[in-house]
Write a structure and sequence with these properties.
Radius of gyration: 13 Å
Order of helices and strands: EEEEEEEEEEE
Strand content: over 45%
Shape: globular
Structural class: mainly beta
Oligomer: single chain
């Protein structure tokens, strides 16, 4: 087990959803926190960075999700969260979490119109 995402599913436009990303202690260390990133890939499109949070807590967001998505991390629980609000159909994609250079399998998020 490396990086595991959860929380995906189907939601109506305008709704909210929270994704979780959990990693083993070795790669989600309290003492050497790595950058955590959330990426997404929609059918027929290139994978894009959605948000990331650095070891010092600084966050970055894609312009398309600013003000709607919030990334956070809890090093003691070896978990990162992506809170998504005001979801749009164009947010539909497979969302994957990265911890350093480790990738999860991804979780499907589908937003219906």
């Amino acid at each position: 087990e490396q990086v595991v995402e959860s929380g995906g599913g189907l939601v109506q436009a305008g709704g909210s959803m929270r994704l979780s990303c959990k990693a083993p202690r070795m790669i989600f260390s309290v003492y050497r926190p790595l950058t955590v990133g959330w990426y997404r890939q929609a059918p027929g499109k290139q994978r894009e960075l959605v948000a990331r949070i650095m070891s010092d807590g600084i966050t970055e967001y894609a312009d398309s999700v600013k003000g709607r998505f919030t990334i956070s991390r809890d090093n003691s629980r070896k978990t990162s969260f992506l809170q998504m609000s005001s979801l749009k159909p164009e947010d539909t994609a497979v969302y994957s979490c990265t911890v350093g250079s480790f990738w999860g399998q991804g979780t499907q998020v589908t937003v219906s119109a």
